[in-house]
Amino acid sequence: MNRNWVLVSILIVMFLSAMEATIVTTAMKSIVDDLKGMELMNMTFSVYLLITAVTTPIYGKLADLYGRKRILMIAIAVFLLGSVLCGAAVTMLQLVIFRAVQALGAGAIFPITMTIIGDIYTPEEQTRLQGIFSSVWALSSIVGPLIGGLIVQFADWRWIFFLNLPLGLASLLLLSFAFRETFRPAGRSIDWIGAVSFLTSISSMLIVMLFGGESGFLSPVNLLFAAMFVLFGIVFVAVERRVSEPFMPLELLRNRAILIPNLFSFLAYAFPIATTVYFPLWLQSLKHQSPIVSGFAVAIATVGWPLGATAAGKLMRRLPPKRVTVLGAGLLVFSGGMLAMITTVTPVPVFFVIMLLAGFGLGVSRTVLMILMQNAVENRQRGIAMSTSALMNTLGQTVFIAIFGVVFNAFASSGEAADLAHGIHVVFTCVSAVMLLAFLVALGVPGISNRELFDDGKGAVAQKKV
């Protein structure tokens, strides 16, 4: 097995998946002008987010049961098929449906690529690679809107989807020839009752959060989905306690090296989603800055993230993982405190500093926690374990943007500048409080030493009861 080529193929598909979340935004006006159907515009984003989130755990489990290579290659093929179909769409409804197909493949990419990295690299090697992965995500966030804008201006919007095809095929070829899977999938069957109940419960919650702000959280439809979330959640827990091969083993939720990183991610991702939405609104409406300035204020976090990931890789060789995590979480608390103190006279460069520090803090803490998760379970459970991380990232962003939307609307309903400032300031204060909660969660990271993580061999953390 050629690990270097496997890494290249993983980086390519990670880049495509991450870029897909941003490249469509700059092209959406041209898409709507061509296909019409403005009322379905938001659905193209919501459907992609929803299906990506709910398919992540099932892909993680399938990778545990039937092997990483086979499932990842199938998912990439589905993603590419969805991309071609999106590029060929002639109505907005078709685009929404084909985005769903695209998302069916995209849901596998993060959990399985991270699982493969956990399989073929040692914990020490993983610390060096996390900086590379973070750089890929940062680069995709920056160049995605730029490429989308260039394509729309000089070509046809359909090429934002067709562009995935050559790079995706290259990734498939590299995987097929370079990746010789050492993991031996067991002859086990998937717990379909547990899987369906889990996915129905999570999907119902995401639907409430995604659309509750438009139709009202207390509307009959949303109350029905809320009831489904609770009911199928109860069914899921009951089933998982009884089956011999559960879809998501409940002991994973009792493993602090899995539980704490997931809780931290859920809370910490409130910061980037809130600032992505409300920084541009504050800077453009209250500071009268251009969209370029507000966009740069948000994007600068993607510079701090890979820097933080690289720093974490070096710090972990000298300090225990818990101490490094707490350091990153502390930067988030500090950034949240600065966020809560913003006023209408705060200089614009302060916004840049806040996002740079927050990105650095997230890069530090998430890198450590990702490595802990990759090594907290045995091979046979690594796929489902890593899928919980991706799911909690999405859940955190979805839940908190819904909560912040309710808070903002409660204080800024008039649309006047003073009310607008007050509403956003209350949201930023809430973000600060959530970051403090994330810091408290980080204090619960298992006290694993450097020797246990790096020197005792792969799987040492998994063998320790945490």
Can you describe what's shown?
Helices cover 81% and strands 0% of the residues. The protein is an all-alpha fold and 466 residues long. It folds into three domains: 188 residues, MFS general substrate transporter like domains (Growth Hormone, Chain: A); 56 residues; 214 residues, MFS general substrate transporter like domains (Growth Hormone, Chain: A), CATH 1.20.1250. The chain is globular, with a radius of gyration of 22 Å. The mean pLDDT is 83.
Under the CATH scheme, the architecture of the largest domain is Up-down Bundle
Query: Beta fraction of the residues?
Result: under 5%
Q: Low-confidence parts lasting 5 or more residues at pLDDT below 50?
A: none
Report the span from N to C terminus: 33 Å
What is the helical fraction, as a range of percent?
over 70%
The total of beta strands comes to: 0
Protein structure class: mainly alpha
The helix-strand sequence is HHHHHHHHHHHHHHHHHHHHH
CATH level-4 homologous superfamily of the largest domain: MFS general substrate transporter like domains
What is the third-level CATH name, the topology of the largest domain?
Growth Hormone, Chain: A
The count of domains is 3
CATH top level of the largest domain is: Mainly Alpha
Average pLDDT figure: 83
- Global outline: globular
Specify the number of helices.
Answer: 21
Radius of gyration from the CA trace? 22 Å
Characterize the largest beta sheet: strand count, sense, and whether it forms a barrel: none
Protein name: Major facilitator superfamily (MFS) profile domain-containing protein
GO molecular function: transmembrane transporter activity
Organism: Paenibacillus elgii
Pfam families: MFS_1 (PF07690)
